[in-house]
Amino acid sequence: MNETSQATASQIPVQLLVMDVDSTFINEEVIDLIAAHAGVGDKVADITERAMAGELDFAQSLAERVALLSGLPETVLDEVREQITLTEGAADLVAAVHSSGGKVALVSGGFTAIIAPVAAQLGITDVFANGLDIHDGLLTGRTNGRVIDPSAKAEIFEDLLAAGGYDRAASVAIGDGANDIGMVEAAGLGVAFCAKSALVAAADASVETRDLRAVIDLVAARADV
Fold this sequence. Notes:
This protein is an alpha/beta fold.
């Protein structure tokens, strides 16, 4: 941790922090991990890569990828959860926002069954992600509930901002893919984290090192202006 983040990690002036999950809050792409158990890892990873680059419609690409998981036992989800690793600095960033009385929410194109338990370990209860349909202990190859596509991410960000009565200028959104553009553009500080070029072009700031403590530095720098 550098000197700036050491000085500000106890708290930062952020009322609302909304983060993408896969390759942002965590190091992995969850659907790629699940796909590896189904023997379709390379195929799903290719679709994921193109979707994050904005080359494919996200909702359609999600449906295609999830369909390839049909027939997997739901116990695979427990195994995948054990493979998840938090991105360096994620716990520090969350703690800094919580210490200042701010809210942290996760908005993900991934899956609630994987993400929510991981988020709970850091005291994050606001998790918005896709549901996986399961029947007789097997994945059906379909999602259930609201699909968290790019427009849903942007809408959820606005709903959280309004519900909490937060100052937009004191809000931060962080993501890595084209599906995060809407919420990143809506935030007071939109951060592209080790991101695809489409998001970098839309963001206020870009972090190239895989350490979320860099966001603490960005917020601190803005506060000092």
